Request: fold
Amino acid sequence: MTNGSAPVTSLAPPASGAGSAPLRTPGSDAPYRQTNGRSVTQRSFGKPQPQEPTFRPVYQGQAWPAQQPAYRPAYTPPPPLDWHQQQARAYTPAPAPKANRVVVIAAVVALVIGVIAGAGAAATVVALDHNSTPVADQPNVPVGTGANPKIRSGSVSAVAATLLPSVVQLKVEGADNSDATGSGFVIDNAGHILTNNHVVAGAAKGGSIQVLTEKGKTSTARLVGRSPAYDLAVVQVVGLDAPSVQFGRSDLAVVGQDVVAIGSPLGLAGTVTSGIISAKNRPVTTGESADQTSYINALQTDAAINPGNSGGPLVDMNARVIGVNSAIATVRGAEEGQSGNIGLGFAIPIDQARRTAQQLIANGVASYPVIGASVDMQFEGGARVSAVNAGSPAARAGMRVGDVITSINNQTVDSAEALIVAIRTHQPGESVRLTFERSGKPREATVTLAQQIG
Reply:
């Protein structure tokens, strides 16, 4: 529509063929090209371009990542779920080849039997060849016959409640200003107290013995008698307000049975410990001098006992006394004053202690059996006779110097101490059967035991 005016060209259609020519490139494509002329927007399906060897795997087995565009951040895929297990397997050494392992014991711990109440190394002595005035026949003094302790078997607390009133603490001051602390227990209604000889030996030639009861009452005791050979002693407090104990039978004790030890270790009165019988018939030698040496056929226990427990009772779970705690084993080389319980304690069997206590109360002295011969304390593999007294039981049995005793009543003898201890389990007047070797040939002899005071 013109109406006489100029045409509106902006709305006019393009001329024919106007769109057939290609459009002109608007500008340079250099920003979209790499130096080698390939477009970064194109994905290569041909041979990958070589890459610099700068990749380090984070975990074992990680795949080599594809090349990333320069304008995108590097992407690290997560490790597999079992990465930690892979690491553990990678650093776990291969198991060593199986081989027989032999354990060699390179050292032996030496034990020295020590007296509990004091320090000092154990001493040994030949004491089989002396004659002394005979002691009267075994007196029948009623000791160890206290009230029947009817308690529930197996209760340590019940055993302690029953026995503690009968156990006392002893404080000894010698005339030579020596002192000792130990334990004891009441054995009859007359105030007699059984303890160890090494506890009261300091007061044998003067001094004082103080007795402290569970109730806290202190009394002065008199020394009735003592036996260094058995390391036993009896003291007495007239009018003592404490019940007496009841004795059991040590010959019926069995290895593994429960026991309780009561005493005053390190001055701590009324201490109770428990354990078991670890062994029986254990030869133990104690003493600090030749005239104070004791040979004990001991009950071994692991109930904790320490210096000051000496003379206290070892009791079964029926509250019956079966032993007198007397010694402990200490490691060789332990400094004085530093020895203590290592689980090896020794008690005098009450069967022997009862006989000795009866003699001490009746006569003030006690006897022990001998064969009238000396033995070599250094010889091993038996007890070798080093001297035979004329007219002694050994001489009458035809024994000679050089004979090696190997058993007594079928009980093996492997040392001089073992022979002495075995003989002292008997009584004077009893007969024992000795097996010995002479010039390599076995022989036997029956010997009637003589007696000696001590």
Notes: The longest helix spans residues 350-363. Residues 1-11, 39-46, 96-131 have pLDDT under 50 and may be disordered. The CA atoms of residues 136 and 363 lie 8 Å apart.
